């Protein structure tokens, strides 16, 4: 039987959680952490207790075992559990619910906060696609997947926080722990599904206003902006989502703007990319 993430989280006891946390803290030195290093770091008196916990975590696929040695590493699901637990302890996420989106680099869940409001938790995962993209970046060469994933979550949270604080249209961020970003739930649909039923001019204005805040105040551009990453809520307000690849590159800003311009042009809205570019950079 395949257990859900919430079910797995409920099966992780206090000691199992410490084992997961310790595996995370020992990441990066080598891919797998040996039983001995783990034992030393945890300072356990009883090897059996540690063995039982490792077997259980392995069974739950929260860790995986080196095929030849008695060594272990945290899986992305294991990282998810650390995120869930810390969001819970910080009173941000009370309960996870169903999956609402499974992208190339994340799994997005509905959930509830402690006041029973609907929220969203996005668990980042860095997959092979992004590996191709970042393979040649020298600064990332020595990093392990868990660290890159956690950095992506933090980058997304920081982008949401700055843009929202400055009045841009993004979901309100609620917290970030490990690879998990909790945020406001937007009750709506992606822009590409709504193009025929909304006021596109107003939406474009709000998108550009948000990009101007992002670029001028927060020093970032989205990096993957498209009608797939813009949600339109029931009142017709756009929300720009999916910010882990935010960068300060002017070239990428231009690409983001061209993507947006192409979509609006196709739907009969007059756009001038040069004017948009100047506006977002704060030149006009
Ligand atoms: N705050 C939110 N409120 C409501 N739905 C959301 C929210 N954030 C994400 N979603 C849903 O989850 C989907 C995936 O989210 P997001 O684009 O951030 O992740 P992703 O990993 O980049 O996915 P993809 O590879 O499909 O772009 C969105 O298209 C949207 O349907
Ligand atoms: Mg997306």
Automatic annotation (TrEMBL):
Family designation: Belongs to the protein kinase superfamily. RIO-type Ser/Thr kinase family.
Domain Protein kinase, first and last residues per copy: 94-284
Species this chain originates from: Sulfolobus tengchongensis
Keyword Oxidoreductase: no
Cited SMART domains: RIO (SM00090)
UniProt catalytic activity: L-threonyl-[protein] + ATP = O-phospho-L-threonyl-[protein] + ADP + H(+); L-seryl-[protein] + ATP = O-phospho-L-seryl-[protein] + ADP + H(+)
Keywords, sorted A to Z: ATP-binding, Kinase, Magnesium, Metal-binding, Nucleotide-binding, Serine/threonine-protein kinase, Transferase
Gene Ontology terms, MF aspect: ATP binding; metal ion binding; protein serine/threonine kinase activity
EC number: 2.7.11.1
Pfam families cross-referenced by the UniProt entry: RIO1
Lineage: Archaea, Thermoproteota, Thermoprotei, Sulfolobales, Sulfolobaceae
Gene Ontology annotations for the cellular component aspect, listed alphabetically: cytosol; preribosome, small subunit precursor
Gene Ontology biological-process annotations: maturation of SSU-rRNA
Primary enzyme class: transferase
Name of the protein described by the UniProt record: non-specific serine/threonine protein kinase
């Amino acid at each position: 039987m395949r257990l859900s993430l919430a079910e797995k989280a409920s099966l992780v006891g206090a000691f199992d959680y410490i084992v997961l946390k310790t595996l995370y803290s020992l990441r990066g030195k080598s891919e797998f952490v040996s039983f001995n290093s783990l034992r030393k770091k945890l300072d356990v008196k009883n090897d059996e207790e540690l063995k039982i916990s490792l077997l259980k975590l392995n069974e739950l696929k929260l860790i995986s075992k080196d095929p030849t040695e008695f060594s272990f590493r945290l899986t992305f699901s294991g990282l998810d559990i650390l995120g869930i637990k810390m969001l819970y302890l910080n009173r941000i996420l009370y309960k996870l619910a169903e999956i609402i989106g499974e992208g190339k680099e994340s799994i997005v869940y509905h959930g509830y906060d402690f006041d029973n409001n609907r929220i969203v938790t996005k668990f980042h995962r860095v997959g092979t696609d992004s590996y191709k993209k970042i393979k040649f970046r020298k600064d990332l060469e020595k990093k392990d997947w868990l660290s890159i994933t956690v950095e992506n979550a933090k980058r997304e949270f920081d982008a949401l926080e700055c843009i929202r604080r400055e009045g841009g249209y993004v979901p309100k961020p609620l917290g970030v722990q490990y690879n998990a970003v909790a945020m406001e739930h937007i009750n709506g649909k992606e822009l590409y599904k709504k193009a025929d039923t909304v006021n596109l001019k107003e939406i474009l204005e709000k998108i550009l206003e948000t990009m101007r805040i992002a670029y001028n105040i927060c020093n970032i551009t989205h990096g993957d902006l498209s009608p797939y990453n813009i949600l339109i809520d029931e009142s017709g307000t756009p929300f720009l989502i999916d910010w882990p690849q935010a960068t300060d590159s002017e070239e990428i800003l231009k690409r983001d703007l061209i993507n947006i311009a192409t979509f609006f042009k196709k739907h009969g809205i007059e756009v001038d990319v040069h004017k948009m570019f100047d506006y977002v950079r704060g030149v006009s």
